[in-house]
Amino acid sequence: MRKVFGFREFRPNQEKIVRAILEKRDVFAVMPTGGGKSLCYQLPAVLLPGTCMVISPLIALMKDQVDGARANGIRAAFLNSSQLPEERESVMRELLSNSLDLLYVAPERFTFDHFRELLGRVNISMAVIDEAHCVSEWGHDFRPDYLSLSALVSLFPDLPVSAFTATATHRVQQDILDRIALRNPLIVRASFDRPNLFYDVRFKEKPDAQIVAILKANKGKAGIIYRTSRKSVNDTAAMLQARGFRALPYHAGLSDDERKRNQEAFIRDEVEVIVATIAFGMGIDKSNIRFVIHADLPKSIENYYQETGRAGRDGEPAHCTLLFAQGDIPKVRFFIDSMLDETERARALDALTRVTSFASTSVCRRITLLNYFGETYPHENCGSCDICTGTREVVDCTREAQMLLSAIVRTEERFGATHIIDIVMGSANQKIRDMGHDQLRTYGVGKGQTKKYWRQLADELLAQKVVAKAEGLYPTLYLLPKAVKILKGEEQIEIVRVLEKKAARAVKG
Ligand code: ADP
Ligand code: ZN
Asked: CB under 8 Å to 87, separation ≥6 — which residues?
């Protein structure tokens, strides 16, 4: 480890895994991104005679891994469809002459008879399935060609087979174990805590301005901005470019060429920021990402964890901001409702509920994330999320809620949040005058608070199921049973408020 890799000590679990493999035992390891999975098989690959074969799903990932291994003097190569036939033949010759420690292959190779036949003639020391969650349909990036790997163990009856993943849910873990059928494997589950990541959830108000503020606080540092749609990716990238930031877009609608160019520019630090859909990220081995911004709601807690997990792989502090507004939910709902497959729809809906609850509660973000993965965090205060660092406070706003609710009642539940807020703030616009709403008793009662305050409160009333939004051409608000109790003063309502100054400091880390 010291001589070849230049590391002074093992990270948690690495030694245990290396020893098991050297004893020819199968291994199944779940370790978070940045946990140091590569060493777990690359070190045995160097120590054992023969070639260690690593099945890896992504071509880009393979090349990085091979480059990294070669830089350490390991004899490594890869085989995949991106190569010319001559290149592949040259790698096969190296393999046959026993001059490779490490060979990365794409899963589809196993469907070729001549590749299987070749394997019979070479000296393989061990097999590794990297990103093993790709075998599970429950995972976030299932790959059909990974299913062929269930035959791997029978293909190598006498060799140790190990499987690695950073995907943490127990369901996916069980699914992988069921499908790959390892033989009495050593099972390692590392902690999923990423102590160097700061988790921050902000009320999404003016996303462009909020993104710009974070970029300014992180000048010159590398970051990823995740957005849901290709259009918003393009718009945000253009907005940032116009303001002089070096930012590039990344999504499945770009040509392969452009995607590759933009990704490379980001990896080589030629641009600071990549604005991307979730198509970006898997296998991005960039260790110095200092911030990740989710400007839209992530698809699931799992996605959120993986996407934020790309920050701070070098162990240095990194900041993860989620911009969240209840108003984003209907868009996602609309998309989910249009899904044809019923199981998939139910799954997506469940994921949405969990992710919104993560963003809306005032419980430590780290505790919520780790709980999701079945892990108990040993402290009450993580000291490194918006909740625990007190960048928020809980405020009783029953009186203000009553103002909004009463305005909704007095206008017979026929208006949306914007108009209701105009009423309580006493705005003198045309619509208010035309409707005669400046004559209402609630008109102008809430002058003392800002528009932002009222919008956040309205958002909160939706989140806490005090009011609901009627679907239709104009989304109008109507009262739910809880609203009646609040109006009568039988129930209180509290909101979690961001304390702006402290929050700004937290961004700077
Ligand atoms: P993973 O694949 O689990 O995300 P990597 O294998 O890419 O993680 O390792 C993450 C980073 O940690 C890499 O930069 C790697 O060089 C470094 N690393 C791995 N093991 C050790 C160790 N024992 N000591 C110091 N750094 C390590
Ligand atoms: Zn916390």
From this structure: none
